[in-house]
Amino acid sequence: MDARGPEAPGGRALRDAAENLFQEVQEHFQALTATLNLRMEEMGNRIEDLQKNVSDLMVQAGIESSIKEQTLKT
User: Fold this and answer.
1) How far is residue 50 from each of residues 39, 47, 54, measured CA to CA in Å?
2) Residue 71 has what pLDDT?
3) pTM above 0.70, yes or no
4) DSSP letters spanning 14-68
5) What was the pLDDT predicted at 1?
6) How many Å apart are CA 67 and CA 65, to the nearest integer?
7) CB-CB contact of 64 with 58 (8 Å)
8) Using alpha carbons only, what angle is made at residue 58 by residues 64 and 60, rounded to the nearest 5 degrees?
9) Which parts of the chain have pLDDT scores under 70?
């Protein structure tokens, strides 16, 4: 017996079940966090690629130089 006093019948089983459930929830949370971090990183890479492609298209279309010239004039 520990310092918490006597346990009710089934108390240990209930505590063990709660600890197991907590452990499972924690593992699922960690897996979800890892998945979300990976997806956010992938999305960030896609956004960077999109920005580069838009910039390249603007240069090809001659739009970027026009925008820069307008910005310098104001």
Assistant:
1) 16, 5, 6
2) 65
3) no
4) HHHHHHHHHHHHHHHHHHHHHHHHHHHHHHHHHHHHHHHHHHHHHHHHTHHHHHH
5) 47
6) 5
7) yes
8) 105
9) 1-7, 64-74
